[in-house]
Amino acid sequence: MTWTSTQVQLARRPEGVPSDDVWDITSTEVAEPADGEVVVQVRYLSLDPAMRGWLNDVRSYIPPVQIGEVMRAGGTGTVVASAHPDHAVGDVVTGTVGAREYATLPGEELTTLDLDLADEPTWLGALGMPGMTAYFGLTEVGALQDGETVLVSAAAGAVGSVVAQIAKARGCRVIGVAGGPDKVAWLRELGCDEAIDYREGDLTRQVRKAAPDGVDIYFDNVGGPLLDAALANLRRGARVVLCGAISGYNAQSLPDGPKRYMSLLVFRARMEGFVVFDYEDRYPEAIAAIGSMIRDGSLVARETVLDGGVRAFPEALRGLFDGVNTGKLVLAL
Amino acid sequence: MTWTSTQVQLARRPEGVPSDDVWDITSTEVAEPADGEVVVQVRYLSLDPAMRGWLNDVRSYIPPVQIGEVMRAGGTGTVVASAHPDHAVGDVVTGTVGAREYATLPGEELTTLDLDLADEPTWLGALGMPGMTAYFGLTEVGALQDGETVLVSAAAGAVGSVVAQIAKARGCRVIGVAGGPDKVAWLRELGCDEAIDYREGDLTRQVRKAAPDGVDIYFDNVGGPLLDAALANLRRGARVVLCGAISGYNAQSLPDGPKRYMSLLVFRARMEGFVVFDYEDRYPEAIAAIGSMIRDGSLVARETVLDGGVRAFPEALRGLFDGVNTGKLVLAL
């Protein structure tokens, strides 16, 4: 048996926001899996800010997507054919499936999901890469201590919303930053002590007002002016966790750096980057911790699910940079 | 008895490079010391890049010098009168004496110098604050490991030259950066494996050529384009030690930040600031380590000594930013 799969390939490298003509949408026939392989019918695709970086032809923590390749994307789906002993037809799995309807992958690159714990979209969000990123970024890189003051940007997003809730569960004072009144209202629902709308401007003043004694941890998903505002409002010994810089991902030249970086000296503080893949061996620990919080209700996992199938991928990706999502953004196929 | 002391007071806050009219040079009578105090005839004044920061009316790691105050400065000198049991007339001491000929200070703020180990100017350089800064910045903040690749800027300066030599003694590959052929030649004499003249431009390429596998530690005294060049050439797990940013100290607005700061993410690296005063309890450890290197010849302590007395202080300070010094810059009174 074969399956006809619509797929999204990179046609050319984008400048700025990836327009439709960056992509070729094609169909291909997917054959029965070879030995050790599995064919997955993809049901949900993950949309991640990091995807924008993967489109640039530069040395980074992961090779760029090449012209002509199917776009790299995490996802979940159902096994429709298996030549791997660990996977049976009907199993629901997750992995880097790519932006396509059917994916043939080595069985060992797929993980079977526990749908009793959470639905598929949550396995791409709080229990997926964003959740892992939040957990290890905050606890390992940020060296979170109970009761500290934590500032988190893109706090209504997939990573930020988990950061905020883990910090709250650790007795921290949490200040979330997001764009627009709806997201700010949601941050308060999540338990943030303060919620800042970055669209209201004067970020240095807003952060100072929310954290008059300064912040111990700034978990940065956005870069730009908010990073400078955070640097101006650190406490002694603060940690700035560099997780992302979405405000600059579509810039056509390298955006300005943080002018206030010498605050790191004044406050004896550090700024440190990380890549979640380095913690792969410890994902079970994070899944257990976040899963337990989901079960006891101390963590709300939220996703924004877009419809439209794989052909809607280009538009969905742009939506991420427009902030259409609250929580994790996924595309249903 | 009294002493007539010429002193340099801050008259107004500078914009840019501190011109002569930033200072008032006045004379005052110094009386016999009160109980617990000591009168020191200042012999050498330390000139430090950090002084420029002390002139700005901003919150920092130390209060700014106030208008009308004698300029803060480290120095050495001879006790000419003492009402403190630990200090006798004729002792040679060091402390924050200020830019003046005679200083009255509490005895406990002065340290008696061991002139058998080194001369007074060296006690302001390799055995003074710059040496302490090099030692703790490199070993504690930089977490130096034997055999690593270390890049250091202002490597012909007071701090950088000690950083380079400690790193060499630890079996590191050391790349020093300085301005002009004389300083570069001196860096090679000191044992630097590579010496870069920043005036030759294209710093990213120069650093890449000197450290094709990247650097483990960048000890930053300068900021500016060299910081970006270093960030572009890190190794995984690298540490950027923020010690200073002399390239921007005279700027009239906040200089640009490091555009390449997201390299910290790609390389899982950290950038961390520190203030040497935090290590005050451990100065004896650093003095012992550096003193031992001076004795066995593995560390060359060099100073550039300017003449001209306290009235030459304003010009001497500007000289620091013009790079007139090799090694520590001191002014003889």
Automatic annotation (TrEMBL), chains A, B:
Annotated ranges, domain Enoyl reductase (ER): 16-331
Keyword entries, A-Z: Oxidoreductase
Pfam families to which the protein is assigned, alphabetical: ADH_N_2, ADH_zinc_N
Organism domain of life: Bacteria
GO MF annotations, alphabetized: oxidoreductase activity, acting on the CH-CH group of donors, NAD or NADP as acceptor
Keyword Oxidoreductase: yes
Cross-referenced PANTHER family: ALCOHOL DEHYDROGENASE, ZINC-CONTAINING (AFU_ORTHOLOGUE AFUA_7G04530) (PTHR43205:SF42), PROSTAGLANDIN REDUCTASE (PTHR43205)
Name the record gives this protein: Enoyl reductase (ER) domain-containing protein
